């Protein structure tokens, strides 16, 4: 941060997010520890994905995988898309995102607000199905590569409408044909792919972790973080473990595969056992290349209800409006602290994004009731005291 807090472009105000001590939470749960939260919604794009999205494209530019005419295509449910959009303002790159239908309309509109095109895909399909959000992003890139010339906005729009129509009419045969086509990649489209890009954990190693280290002078005993792609926890853990003894604990929702694998279950069996849950941004039904489970000491498992109750409690008691994965990370931390009788330690919990994107869900009693959740937060949290 410079002295007068004056900046020239949006990239300069990414990072340097505050860490806030959660004193109300400490006393409510009788925790004899210092518990801090890293408040990532203070980033300009509103989440922990700002540093990462920007870093992926910076490295792609450095490695000559993109230029100013490259269209960025990515399967994303929101936060990563915003990070990519921030970097795209530098060279004016166009963006196309694919997004499963379970993600709210608001998140689609959010990405469109940054000038992106969005293609919606069905939710309950296998990742390798031709209409999954992963496959559709590849199909879009292939159609762009095939054009082999710089596209006008109208031509981009035509591709978006064409693909959306194939998805909406469930034309799996045509989608599959395009997916299987052997088309040479070129600079016209690029898929950063946060699930397979080594620069995802590296961004957190070089940026997020470094920042946390200097905030606490390395003086932390535990770090808790939810696991999505695993980029955050893997990058942070590597940086800290290279420098000191620390316990890094992942938080995983019931229905995800991570805690099953960490406890020795075979990948295929864990994938078979995976089922849906409502908390967004954490847990997976595939094993991304961006996670290193060896760098995670243990995993604390949480359910939707306790995650949501904790999220709502945070807004009311600490004045911090965060998303469900933050509530999940905190309740996962508290359960772990209690279970292992951890005392007099300095603990950091990562809060990845803002609650504003979830006003119609977690913070809407009607939605909770319709989905059979308890709206009395303290009734849920009291028993975890
Ligand atoms: N919380 C939210 C809201 C997210 O969008 C993500 C990213 N999927 C995470 C947590 C997990 O971060 P990571 O992918 O780095 O594990």
Automatic annotation (TrEMBL):
Stated family: Belongs to the cysteine synthase/cystathionine beta-synthase family.
Cofactor section: pyridoxal 5'-phosphate
Any matching Pfam family: PALP
InterPro entries in UniProt: Cys_Synth/Cystath_Beta-Synth, P-phosphate_BS, TrpB-like_PALP, TrpB-like_PALP_sf
This enzyme's EC code(s): 2.5.1.47
One biological process term in Gene Ontology: cysteine biosynthetic process from serine
Catalysis: reaction(s): O-acetyl-L-serine + hydrogen sulfide = L-cysteine + acetate
Molecular function GO labels: cysteine synthase activity
Residue ranges occupied by any Tryptophan synthase beta chain-like PALP domain in the UniProt entry: 12-353
Principal EC category: transferase
Keywords on record: Amino-acid biosynthesis, Cysteine biosynthesis, Pyridoxal phosphate, Transferase
Name of the protein in its database record: cysteine synthase
Top-level taxon: Bacteria
